[in-house]
Design brief:
Elements lengths: L1 H13 L7 E2 L3 H4 L3 H13 L2 H10 L4 H17 L2 H9 L4 H19 L9 H24 L6 H8 L1 H4 L4 H11 L4 H10 L8 H14 L9 H14 L6 H11 L2 H15 L9 H14 L2 H11 L2 E2 L3 H7 L2 H12 L6
Parallel strand pairs: 1-2
């Protein structure tokens, strides 16, 4: 009842609301890359694997764009393997096809494990995760052998295999990936995750990795916002690990409202916003900013971030970490940012 009262007041005083965000919308609606959008539509319509190949190769040596397009087609290969099988039969040694297969196996491994904490994951889930992860690592090694020696994507895929295999080779692989593409966001994000306390590192190492990468990245680059992600990982591990209660949520909010935490995060956001973004794929980092502003109660800044995200929304874990459910956290905060209810 109270929500509806706030809604009516907002409509009367604040005017019309933006379009209400939609989850599970057609992927085509969320793709801003015209080449990818057209190639994906052609692939779904005709089942012609050449559409995927041509779109990936058209990215040239823009490794971030190439990796993004390849990831979208890997998702399609998971849903419908016929077109991908046709490609592998026609070109069994094509590097993009080899990397798509590695990504498909990694996706299967992730789903086999699930997203629960280790204490709530069964032995059978762990076994399936490790078996499929080993196969993904082998496929990544083959992709590396076939790939352009400048392409970091197979190395990023090998870094991801460390979640199952341990981080013994992380430094070597990460170093080579950085040599190939110094500011690659996906590469640094995996490194931050692997070096966090819940995996193979510590809070100190995780923040060092994130801040070093962000400091080196140019303004407008997504990598500049990785320290914000590190703060989320820290808060989740310290205050919300196996506990999504109101008490833990209050502890998270107190952490992000510390002056020193806000100075750090605000500085990185200012650097990111000081130049035109270098990528079209910004939903993730825009949601990071929306999470942060919602946690600290900056309504105007949160609304700007939500407006930038737009109507079609992908779920990200941070909403679930701090609100108990990804979709609920996003929508509750979206309504608040638009003047309805509390964050």
């Amino acid at each position: 009842m109270l929500f509806h009262v706030h809604y009516l007041i907002r409509r009367i005083i604040g005017g019309p609301l933006p379009p209400i965000p939609e989850f599970d919308a057609d992927v085509q609606l969320m793709i801003k890359d015209e080449v990818l959008r057209e190639a994906r539509a052609r692939l779904l319509r005709d089942g012609d694997w050449r559409a995927a190949k041509q779109a990936i190769e058209a990215a040239g040596d823009d490794w971030a764009l190439r990796g993004y397009r390849l990831g979208v087609f890997a998702g399609l290969a998971e849903d419908d393997a016929k077109w991908f099988d046709d490609w592998v039969r026609a070109e069994p040694s094509h590097p993009a096809a080899a990397l798509i297969w590695a990504k498909v196996l990694a996706g299967r491994a992730s789903r086999a494990r699930g997203d629960a904490s280790a204490a709530n994951t069964s032995k059978e889930q762990f076994h399936s995760f490790h078996v499929l992860s080993e196969r993904a690592a082998e496929a990544s090694q083959r992709a590396l052998e076939l790939s352009d020696p400048r392409d970091p994507a197979p190395l990023i895929r090998m870094m991801s295999s460390c979640f199952a295999a341990g981080a013994g080779s992380l430094n070597e692989v990460y170093s080579e990936a950085r040599r190939r593409d110094q500011h690659n966001f996906d590469m640094h994000e995996v490194a931050v995750m692997l070096t966090c306390e819940k995996w193979y590192g510590s809070h100190e190492l995780m923040f060092d990795i994130a801040r070093t990468a962000a400091d080196a990245a140019p303004p407008g680059h997504k990598t500049v916002l990785l320290p914000l992600f590190a703060h989320f990982e820290y808060a989740m591990r310290e205050f919300a690990w196996d506990d999504r209660s109101k008490k833990s949520q209050r502890a998270v909010r107190r952490y992000f409202r510390r002056p020193e935490v806000q100075r750090d995060i605000d500085g990185w956001i200012a650097k990111f916003r000081s130049a035109t973004p270098t990528s079209q794929q910004l939903s993730q980092v825009r949601q990071w900013m929306a999470v942060y502003y919602s946690l600290i109660g900056r309504r105007k800044a949160a609304k700007i971030a939500f407006d930038e995200i737009g109507q079609y929304v992908t779920r990200f874990n941070e909403w679930g970490w701090f609100w108990g459910d990804m979709e609920y956290g996003f929508m509750k905060s979206w309504w608040w940012a638009n003047g309805v209810g509390g964050a």
